[in-house]
Amino acid sequence: MEQKNILKTGTTTVGIVCKDGIVLAADKRATAGHLIASKRAKKVEEITDNIAVTMAGTVSDAQLLIRLVQAESRLKSMRTGQEPFVKETANLMARMVYNNIRKMSMIPGIAHFLMGGKDRDGLFVYEIFADGSIQKIDDFISSGSGSVMAYGVLESQYTKDITVENGIKMAVTCINAAIQRDSASGNGIDVVTITADGMKRVIDHDLKTKIEV
Fold it and tell me: Is residue 213 part of a domain?
C-alpha cells in the first residue's frame, strides 16, 4: 500500500493548561489522500475516568495504541485498587509509540498524542511525540497539520491565569482557525475538560456544510 492511501486523521489537536483544569480539543476530519474518509472521527478519547488523549497521525496505529493503554490502565486499577498516575500512563504510551515505530520498515506507523489528566498529585498535560519522546507541558500544545494556525491563536492569547471557561473558548478559536486554512482539518470539533470535578465532554459539534436550494 502506498503511503498516500493510508487513512490519516490530518488533524488539529490542542491541549491547554488552565489554572483550574485542562482543556483538550480536536477537529473531526479523517483523510485518505485527498479524500475525506470520515467526517465524524473521534480524536479525543478517554483512557480512564480522569485521563484523556488526543490523537493525530495514522488512524490504525493511534487507535490500537489507545486501546492497549486503556486496557493496561484498567488492569493497573484492578490490581492496585487505585487509578494510575497521569505521568505513568503517559510514559506507558510513549514506550508503546517508540516500540511501534521501531518495528516498522517500508510504511512507518506515525501517531502523535496529547495526554491530559488528573491524579493524586494534580493536573497534567503531556506531549507524546511520534518518535516515542515525551514532554510535560506547562502552558499549551498543538499537533497535526493545522497546528500552525492553532499556535497563532495560542501564542497571542494564552495567559497563565486562564480559566477552563476561557480555555474552552480559546480551543474553539484554535480549531476554527485551522479549519479555515487546513484542508485536512474540519467537519466539527470535540472539546473535553478535566477539572477537580472530573472529566467532561463539553462540546461535540458537527459542522454542516451541505448547500440546499
Answer: no
> Average of pLDDT values for 199-204?
96
Q: Is residue 88 part of a domain?
A: yes
Q: Cα–Cα distance between 21 and 103 in angstroms, integer? A: 36
81-119 pLDDT, tens per residue?
A: 999 999 999 999 999 888 876 665 444 557 899 999 999
Whether 119 and 82 have beta carbons less than 8 Å apart is answered as: no
Q: Is 12 one of the catalytic residues?
A: no
| Marked catalytic residue, from 9, 11, 48, 54 | 11
Question: Can you give the CATH number for the domain in which 51 is found?
Answer: 3.60.20.10
Please calculate the CA angle 157-160-162 and round it to the nearest 5 degrees: 65
What is the DSSP pairing of strand 188-195 with strand 134-137? unpaired
CA dihedral 47, 52, 57, 60 (to 10 degrees): 20
Contact 93, 128 (CB under 8 A): yes
Beta bridge partners of 18: 21
pTM of the predicted model, to two decimals? 0.89
Q: Are 12 and 178 in contact (CB under 8 A)?
A: yes
